[in-house]
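Teaching assistant here, posting this on the class forum so everyone can see the example we discussed in section. The complex has two components, and the goal was to see what a joint structure prediction looks like when all of them are supplied at once.
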Amino acid sequence: MIALQELRVNSRSFLMTACISVLILTALTAILSIASQIPDALNKYVNNSAFSTMRIENVRYEDLEFLETVQINVSDMQVESEAELSVGLPEDWLPDFTITTETEGGGSKYMQNMTEDCTIRNINQNLCEGEEWTELKDRQNGLWLSAGAAEVLGVHAGDLVSLSARRYNSATLEEVIASFPASGSEPEWMNTISVPVTGIYREFTQCKSYYYTLPLYISCCMQEPEEITVFAKCQNVMHFHRIKNLLNTHFLSVDAKYEIIDSMLFLIAALYIICICLTVMEIMMLYSMVQTYFHQRVQAFGLLRALGLSRGGMLFVISTLIISVLTICFGFALLLSPFMIQYVVNVIEDVFPDIILHISNRNILIPAIYAVLSVAVLCICLLNLHEYRSAYLSQLLRNGDETK
Amino acid sequence: MEDNTPIIEGRHLFKKYVLHQGDYYALNDVSISVQSGEYVAVTGHSGSGKSTLMNILGSIDAPTSGEILFEGISIKDYTEKQLAQLRNRSIGYVFQSFYLEPNYTVGKNVEMPLLIAGYDARERKKRIQAVLEQVGMEKHIHQKAYMLSGGEKQRVSIARALVCNPKLILADEPCGNLDSENTAIVMDIFHKLHQEQKTIILITHSNEDASQAERQIRMKDGKILS
């Protein structure tokens, strides 16, 4: 009640400081909301576009397990080996009837806990027959055909197809065709195995005609792939450089275009620095507000003490009063901040048109800032009260007379 | 409490100020005792230490040495909270400069000690009405304090001192800023309070005002003369 009366009586003296506080808090709320949105927006942008994909070359088969421990989403994986696989029907298999030469396939690996794996996710999402590519399937021989390839070959999920490995360094395509025996028996340079089609998927963007698990590749070639190129994206772009450095220490070549990430990371850092500066400014404003208030009301405090208000009660009254002012300022700031967010978002979208930000000031850090400022107010009030602690009430009343 | 126990007693009170010129004793071994229902006037010239004595008796100031007993109990070891309660419940102050909050209404000014004491709204309203009637200011309850004349301000100040029904009223030069007409009104209020068995310690330099009290204490240079 006393605090409310004080607030009502002193509202004019608080007005100027409160107006500046509203401006600072509006800017703080807006910038904080935007800064906290950018990582998510950037993650979405990076994961939905081909931009800033890390190309990790010369990955060995055994290194794939290490990749599972890194916070990345593998979007694609290319097995770069001299051996190339061909898929065909088992009964009348001929190299020129295979789909290998025109629409090649690719190997991939289901990475544990990496549900964002683009290829496997696309296969599973577009599956029209057969079984999904799961971690369990990944450890077995598995072959998924596109609907088009399945139609060319005339097969369905579960039907057997031949998978052959051919070595270009030991035979040219012409040699292969010329030496192909009419009986259908295999030449030395070729290894053929029969596998059932695990699943059939509808074609998706940039898809290949077939995908196989790496164990199937090893079964067919009778060797582990020597070079795998992994295309991956950071699960959280905020850790981009740390992850890139980590990968660089393990692999010879890690390449990524990360200019936009750097720009955005710089922007986030700049925005947070501005937030810290604004918070400090707001604390200074509150400090000045409390100091002025104490100076103006020294006699009133002396009187309240003389009338029986204890020091604890005094602290309660003053801190309640200042926190009430702060709360009112915060309320106004929350009302005004969407307008400022709109303006800043427009500026950011002009520079980075692909980054989509929302006009929202819902952010966990805003109550945290409010809490920090409230604690700061309490500390400032405590400090001021401590200064008056040594003074007797008669002194406070006299000082008030002198101030007047 | 026994009948002869003073409501307030000061024993061997010293108040020393350390100045550039040397130590200055505002109070120099002052002992005073006031019985319940007594009307005591403390007189003396400016700088004689009477206001310092009032501040110390009212626990607004602390003595350098000596002891204050309120109803026979020493307040030396009182905690800050106990002292605050004592000031709120048992002592009413009337200051020369009124110390009213100019932007508060009369009612709000009088309400202040009741808010601190934690009375409920109904009780506060009842008490405010009663004390304002007692000092003849009930019609001004909604008026802002800065709009009042000096005499009216002092009457509001007295109402504020009385509102918690204190056992002791300490008045420091209550008529110091008032004309003779208002002085008479204020002194009349104190006279009536005395008739209601209130204990009053009146600090004044006016012999005429002091003469209305039943006992006079003269002070000079921080000492009690008589």
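For the discussion questions: The CA atoms of residues 218 and 225 of chain B lie 5 Å apart. The mean pLDDT of chain B is 88. Think about how each of these relates to the inputs above.
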